[in-house]
Write a structure and sequence with these properties.
Distance between the termini: 67 Å
Order of helices and strands: HHEEHEEH
Number of strands: 4
Shape: globular
């Protein structure tokens, strides 16, 4: 009898540990178990020998020199790709300059995995941990059942990055929110298939609840729009999808009602 109880407790403990490991896949639950935990995601990536999550990007010792990458204690192979920047379509935007390196700031760090060229599992060799060579090239099925890819090879087909917010605000005026505004809070728009969409005015931000503490200016890099302006890479304060949705794109605001777009754009 005691043996059966011991076995049962072991099975329960294993199941609990698996649940805990995968818990981070949910928004706001942190990096462990999320899609940025290379030890846990599918794709044939080399695990860290000590199963450290942070080691794929950061290390407390023997980091890359501070001047080589704009990140603290960086431990990942930096991307060396040079991609063509977004080309402005609207005449009003023609005067908005894009940096000579559109991947300025954390965007180049993101591309250290998302360029499809640099190995996702490549990191420093502290504790003799093996460094991998697997690139992000596979497609996947997203939370909405659509086929998508996680790597970027063309900046001309993505939201523009590498420009100064102040330049855009000067060109667009009141069509952009003030940098002191916060992102729209979860469910603030209450946008569902059955809701009365006329019940709120997306142009009147005074009537929309906002996320406290995380403003637009907080997520700009020296004033520049980057990948990290919209995405919370550590999966700690990003949006939770509305009930019934299963996506987690590490965004600061929800997709529903285009809350992520309307956090910056006045439409």
């Amino acid at each position: 009898m005691m043996k059966k109880i011991t076995v049962l407790l072991t099975v329960v403990a294993v199941a609990a540990s698996v649940s805990m490991a995968l818990a981070g896949a949910n928004p706001k639950t942190g990096i462990n178990g999320s899609m940025h935990d290379i030890n846990k995601v599918a794709g044939g990536y080399q695990q860290d020998k000590l199963l450290r999550t942070c080691a794929f990007c950061h290390t407390p010792h023997n980091a890359l020199p501070n001047g080589s990458v704009p990140a603290p204690l960086w431990n990942h192979a930096p991307s060396t790709v040079n991609l063509a920047p977004y080309t402005w379509a609207a005449p009003t935007n023609q005067g908005i300059a894009i940096n000579s390196d559109p991947l300025v700031g954390p965007s180049r760090l993101c591309m250290g995995c998302h360029d499809g060229v640099t190995a996702v599992d490549s990191h420093g060799s502290a504790a003799s941990s093996p460094t991998g060579t697997t690139k992000m090239t596979a497609s996947y099925v997203d939370g909405l059942g659509n086929t998508a890819k996680r790597y970027i090879t063309d900046l001309t087909v993505t939201h523009p990055i590498g420009f100064l917010w102040a330049d855009a605000a000067s060109a667009r005026g009141t069509e952009l929110q003030p940098v002191t505004n916060s992102f729209i809070a979860d469910n603030a728009l209450n946008y569902t298939a059955t809701s009365n969409v006329a019940a709120f005015d997306t142009r009147n931000r005074g009537s929309i609840t906002q996320v406290g503490g995380k403003t637009i200016q907080n997520v700009l890099y020296s004033g520049y729009m980057t990948c990290a302006t919209c995405h919370d890479v550590h999966n700690s304060v990003n949006a939770t999808p509305a009930s019934g949705s299963g996506y987690n794109y590490f965004l600061y605001a929800q997709e529903e009602g285009s809350a992520i777009c309307l956090s910056c754009h006045t439409k």
